[in-house]
Amino acid sequence: MNVLVTYPDRCVGCRICEQWCSWKHEGQVNSTKSRVRVNRVHSKYLNIPVTCMQCAKSPCIAACREGALSKNPATGAVIVDEEKCIGCRRCIRACPYGAVGIDKEKKVVLICDLCGGEPQCVAHCREGAIDYVPLAVADRGQRAAYVETVAATMEGGCR
Amino acid sequence: MAELKGLAGRILRVDLTSGSVTKEPTPENIFAGYIGARGAGAYMLLKELKPHTDPLGPENKLFFLTGPLEGTLAPGANKITVTFRSPLTGTYSFSLCGGHLAPEVKFAGYDGIIIEGRADHPVYLWIDDDRVTLKEASHLWGKLTHATEDAIRKELKDDTIRVACIGPAGEKLSRFACIQSDYHREFGRGGAGAVMGAKNLKAIAVRGTGGIEVADPAALEALAEKVYSILAGNLKAKARRYYGTPEMVDGTNGIGYWGTRNFSTGYFEEAGKINAASMKEKIFVGHSSCYACPIACGKVSYIKDGPYAGTMIEGPEFESAGLLGANCGVADLAAIVKAVEICDTYGLDTMSAGAVASLAMECYEKGIINQADTGGLELRFGNGEALVALMEKIARREGIGDLLAEGSKRAAEKLGVPELAMQVKGQEFATYDPRGCKGMGLGYAISPKGAHHMIAPTMGPETAGDGSRRLEYKGKAALVRETQFLLAIVDSLSLCSSMRFAMGLKEQIELYQAVTGLALDEAGAMRIGERITNVERLFNLREGFDRKDDYLPPRMLKEKMPTGPSRGNVVELDSMLDEYYDLMGWDRQGRPTEAKLADLGLADLWREVNY
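Predict the joint structure of the above. Result:
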């Protein structure tokens, strides 16, 4: 099973991912209906992509009292049942990443559905700032960053 | 919802004097006839502004207009234009800003924002979809641009709100004050920031939650994919991505038309210290992109050590490196970065700022001003420290900075050396020395907003191959005319000009048709380009501008370039002007003829507005 991984250090903030996400889902470019969002931290010259991380035990699903959220067993994506969703926004507040949005017209929540296994944000990111990788290796970069920090303290290397 | 697809369908009109805010239907016939943005702005300014309007008075207006492509899937559609009568030149002027402001305005449901009148105290405009309010800005007055953006996002409790604002330079009515957005994107040239300052309008903040309908989604999607794939393999686009706009330093300096030491020559011996390779090695730390751009030419720079340690900006752009660098003889990257930071945070056009600094330096070297005038600054060419100190004086209008904030033309006249100001109609040159690229000289001369490089950027075709064509006169008038129309189209579509790496006129039209559903062919588009160019000319004609104002400074016409690969060259302008006017169907005084106006369907408009 694959999950989405973001690399904020690579993101340049072009928001082409937002464009394609809303375009493919809604037939229109609309940032508020994109399941992926890029926030710019101007003071640090950073662009931080924010999207669903496909939590194994999804807080959004746990928070939903209407049974509107479920997991696609094939992809692991959280699927919104628009009939059941009452737009209470409990899942928005439960999400550790702030990755859940809401459709102001339909008044139902918006969660990444992984485009059925071919995420369009990944397909259109020219910077490699978002990737779709096997869960088992998803966060190797985190460990690498830690290893680098430790190594930096060991000045002489193996000597 | 708009009939014409690609439009939001409404334009916001804000009268700061009365505080009234109205939402008008977008004049679709104007957008169809002039495409949008720059074209529509030129028409509206001519139509709505009374003759001889004081640029810094309440009657001047700011037309912030987008085109049909923003907020759609169209790649590189991220520009918003501001059109106004310039306090620097007295002419029609416009300036384009990239970043993320344009799509946000469309998402909020507007094709543009018209600002009129003058508030009696500092305010900012808050556009939150349909809810539009003027808010108190006294607490923001005096703040630098970055701090202003941050404060507005904080008080409105949303870090994704887009802000366009002025800094202290705009408040103090510097004639080349810009309007800043997304920290380092700006409506740079012509002094729109001073117009905003004169209106007591500190900022415009925008949040939009809507979307834009397009006519042919399948065609638009295919075109977007095509543009991405062309750009991915395009060498010029790759150079932009890797090096940003400074990738042009080597090419421009290498054949000797990079304005150096107040355009005393076109070749900077120390260019290697401030070229793209040097920036990449010494100061670039990251990338930054405007909305929907598959190139991402923005480069983040950071100064690690020395007196300016800790300075961080997006840039320097090619033009800033040229005018604050080569043209001031400064080869110190850290000083250039610091100077750009001062311009961006105080809200000054880096190009004009560099040009007035180089004027001051030449005056200092020639003994026209001395240390008593400069407040102790040793204002010699090449002195980066003095450049930085001078930028602060200009930004705050302190000492000699007060005079220089008036722009190079006024400053040089006051100092008794008008010939030393490298400007046309009061607008300072861009970084190209026209003696080494003749078409650019004609472009500077006939530009409706004064010497500006993007009215007719002919340098590409002029320097192609072995580069020798740049020194020829033959065909230059026709090239300038054609390029001028093509750029009027690009600007009116509100595409970033870098998209021309992937899209010629044919592809731009395909994009326009997919979005709007309107039929247009290449001849029709060029006719629109010609119409826009004539409307711009008419505005200036009404203000008394004609051939006498289409001249370059005597240095370009008489002083042979002393060094570099373009050595020995001057610009022979008169014959190019004659040829250009003839091709345009204008008389030899540069006035559109009755026949030409009738041909373009502008005769009635001209009769109506020329009173």
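The first helix of chain A runs from residue 16 to 26.
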